[in-house]
Amino acid sequence: MSDFIYLASQSPRRRQLLEQLGVPYELLLPDASEDAEALEAVLKNEAPTAYVKRVTGLKLDAAVARLKQRKLPAAPVLCSDTTVALGRTIYGKPDDAKDARRMLAELSGTTHRVLTAVAVQSGRRRFEALSTSRVSFEAMSDSQIRAYVATGEPMGKAGAYAVQGRAALHITCINGNYSGIMGLPLRETALLLRSAGIKI
Fold it and tell me: Cβ(113)–Cβ(177) under 8 Å?
């Protein structure tokens, strides 16, 4: 039994959500020598569900290797990845403001899926879960999209928006798990951590 976990994520939202569960954690972040972004490359004809599960697994593999390499005390390691999908099209993090505007224009007036995969490694055992939610955007004008992108909020976010931020102005309906859309579905995460021996 461990009294803390390692969180292998640079997302401040995931930290906040983990704190909401009351789980003590230490960050296990990549070194400068690691190309963490390369793990998020989409394979040809890859389905969104397969993609988000695969990327989460790769991130967890890298984090477990990092743990061993740094000779840190043993504890469960938590990884997560979120992607936005419209049909089979995957919307990751935008490359720049122009890319963010393109993504939001394509998501405008639609209902899309937000997929968040979570994986926990405890010793040799691995526990995995997937949260799927649906988010509906109103039809946004070009000026509304430009104004939102100008805030800088879309950068570093899958689908070029943050549900807990100013994008909420344009969301007409959410069907599913709000914390999952933010980046860490709390119920699924709690169940995985319990399976890994963490008291919640």
Answer: no
**What's the distance, CA 152 to chain centroid?**
18
Work out the burial of residue 12: count CB atoms within 10 Å of its CB; fewer than 13 is exposed, 13-18 middle, 19 or more buried: exposed
The catalytic residues are: 81
Instruction: Measure CA of the first residue to CA of the last residue in the chain; give whole Å.
Output: 12
- What is the pLDDT, as a whole number, of residue 117? 98
**Which stretches of the chain are DSSP H helices?**
12-21, 48-69, 97-107, 142-150, 178-182, 186-195
Please tell me whether the overall predicted TM-score, pTM, comes out greater than 0.85 for this model: yes
Helix then strand count (H, E) for the chain reads: 6, 7
Q: Are 134 and 163 in contact (CB under 8 A)?
A: no
Residue 167: the pLDDT is 96
* Bridge partners (DSSP) listed for residue 86: 89
The position carrying tokens 């999952």 is 180
Task: Please report, for residues 31, 87, 106, 159, the alpha-carbon distance to residue 37 in angstroms, rounded to integers and kept in the order given.
Answer: 12, 24, 23, 16
The dihedral built from the CA positions of residue 68, 74, 76 and 77, taken in this order, carries a sign that is: negative
Task: Indicate the DSSP class of residue 3.
Answer: S
Closest by Cα among 75, 73, 63 to 10: 63
pLDDT at 174: 98
